[in-house]
């Protein structure tokens, strides 16, 4: 799967720190970014040159980043230029990565295989890209909008579905039932189909199930018969678990090269990310996608249709000005050249594939470890793909700024459309935010560009479109009545404005939780102090209300801690039990009910003139309980529906 870019990359660490760390904006000064270097002359695109480059690049990359092993394939001029293995597939046994023998998990690169299967059936007249998918399904998908939901939407991540994390990846040995996985608790449709790019594992898996329904074969069997077997990809499979002859050749996955081997991962919706493959087999697939290699999976016109944007401005409006999703591929142009690609992540494997349709070239890389920094492979893959482009396909990336764009109107705090707006995971929207700052020269500055997790600057190029300074990536801004309603980036992701109330929720929650914790510590400390000083206690009057307030405060603090633990588990793809979630909800509810005794106690203190210190303390506790309760209601923490 491609886990989420804002969801998976560093998600566990972000959730742990969420209560303590509050995102802040950047200054408006011009950041100190290096000037882009002029393009060099291209190197000879030959097997010998590519091997030399890989030898110079990959070993150091692996060692510096704590990655056990990698597999690489490069194709060009209608042939395989090289396939290479680097590092270890099994660190304990010392088994080296063999590009012909060692299987890796490409994750969401699997989605391109699913899209290819769909397009084969479209080409055969069995499926239609623009027919409502209800015509192909044997179960109903809850709809929020009357517009058709089509295969074109599913393949371009514009079906409008929110994210679902539960069951995404596990280690259970039971076979996956694709229909059950899709029909049970489907994600809510939160955007109008075709209007808002929002990466969706569910949507792609639904397309895979339609392949199953239309062909009369299980999805894995169809891919075997129509894609893997014709290409001679006999070391690849969507099967989970793998057949014994392939399982023995599967690379281990690692958190880092120093850690223990992890279990084989079972993807809950196989079409979206269950492929296991060798580098040699991925080279065969790249050649077929380029129309080379002697096996035609698709006609030339169909392949070109797959490489073209799937939707236009009639559907996407202003978002069509940026790079778009094609029918299964991301537009990922490099150095002014047309590039389509796809990345993929499981818990332990991290991969990327780039095709140059006009240049007849392609590169695939897969790492079997996350590395010492967790999300480090995102940058490594980007660096490797950029270095490949600069070495063999250099070109200009100059950005000519256009006049008239209002950067100040775009500046603000945003959250990702790829989230769970209707579940308790919607709380992440308030923590995993992106700050966009208007620079003095009219450009936009991202302290953490959501596509790269690095600082980025975008210059206006006209019509609401902004281009990455020193790169080819573009973003597009959609406005309504003069207000920004979204920023599309990296083809399948949209940033949505975070409203003021939700933005204040984070600092208020942090301050309120801290206040309640201090109050809980202050109550016994005060009792000890009074005893040591020989001073009388508060007396029996209102004792019941004091106890109930303390119970409410304690439960609120425990609930916040419990939600942090649950979110960490969920984002680490470890399913928290329903019992745990319900228990934390019970604590949360008791905390909310704590407002009643807090209010009664406050009224009583005022009536009997208990003194400003006592009244102030109760007011602080009451407001803190109210703030935590408001956050719980705002972000569905008390929702009866605990699917996620």
Automatic annotation (TrEMBL):
Residues 1-28 form the signal peptide. It holds the Pfam family Beta-lactamase. Keywords: Hydrolase, Membrane, Signal, Transmembrane, Transmembrane helix. SUPFAM superfamilies: beta-lactamase/transpeptidase-like. It comes from the Bacteria. The chain crosses the membrane at residues 504-526, 547-573, 579-600, 612-633. This is Class A beta-lactamase-related serine hydrolase. It comes from Glycomyces terrestris.
